[in-house]
Amino acid sequence: MLTNYLALNIDQLVSKVTEHGFCVMDDFVTPANTLALSNEITLLNDHLQMQEAGTGRAHNIINNQLRGDVIYWLNESHPTLAQQAYFSQMEILRASLNQHLYLGLFALESHLALYTAGTGYKKHIDRFKVSSKYPTNQPVRQISCILYLNQDWLAENGGELRLYLNSADETMYVAPIDRLSLDISPLGGRLVVFLSDTFYHEVLPATQDRKSLTGWFLTR
Ligand code: OGA
Ligand code: MN
Question: Distance between CA 103 and CA 11 in Å, rounded?
């Protein structure tokens, strides 16, 4: 049953994340705010304010073969109106996730992202399982949330998020879904949420510019 991972509201979203480790919700933000955020990316890019995205623990390794997007980190203390709407939705989500999953999510870091046509992001995981080699009590990414901003995206434009469901953690085998990966089209207003240390994923190249707002809830 492939619609099992779709949620109609934040309550459903949280219970599906609890059950399966991931979830997809359409119309998480209004079309007007989706468009406003999309326009912000266009403007930032025109003014050369987007930076090449890094990889690695300190996000300081630029490797265009691995990841081809340009990004802009949001500053929660100086939001635009559309960002404010996004942040307040995310705050509701954070509170609800904490209530149900007891994760102690205390902050959000988020960036706008632009993948120009033909670029993508190779298979990766947003956080490696906690290792004793690294100091504890550091903020780490616990939940990945990707909001898509292309209003009239067509399936044939590509650019899917490929989410690998055969995670290392067998309890997260997402029982109702009998396939190993799921391709999620980046439709404007759609939010994808998944556990950062559980799901490998990749961004497939698109035929058009692909815009998104990625957020990570942090824990210690
Ligand atoms: C990321 C990422 C996926 C997407 O930014 O780490 O995997 O669909 N993004 O944009
Ligand atoms: Mn990622």
Answer: 16
Instruction: State residue 130 phi and psi, 5-degree precision.
Output: -55, 130
- Confirm or reject: Cβ of 121 under 6 Å from ligand 1: yes
Q: How far is the CA of 191 from the centre of ligand 1 (A)?
A: 11
d(C-alpha 146, C-alpha 161), whole Å = 10
Q: Is the CB of 212 under 6 A from ligand 1?
A: yes
Per DSSP, the three-state class of 91 is helix
Contacts of 33 (CB under 8 A, 6+ apart): 82, 85, 86
CA quadruple 71, 76, 80, 81: dihedral, nearest 10: 130
Tokens of 179: 């396939």
Ordered DSSP codes for 140-197: EEEEEEEEE--TT--GGGB--EEEE---SSGGGS-TT--SSEEEE---TT-EEEEETT
Main-chain dihedrals φ then ψ at residue 112, nearest 5 degrees: -75, 150
User: How far, rounded to the nearest angstrom, does the alpha carbon of residue 151 sit from its chain's CA centroid?
Assistant: 17
pLDDT tens digits, 24-66: 999 999 999 999 999 999 999 999 999 998 776 666 677 777 8
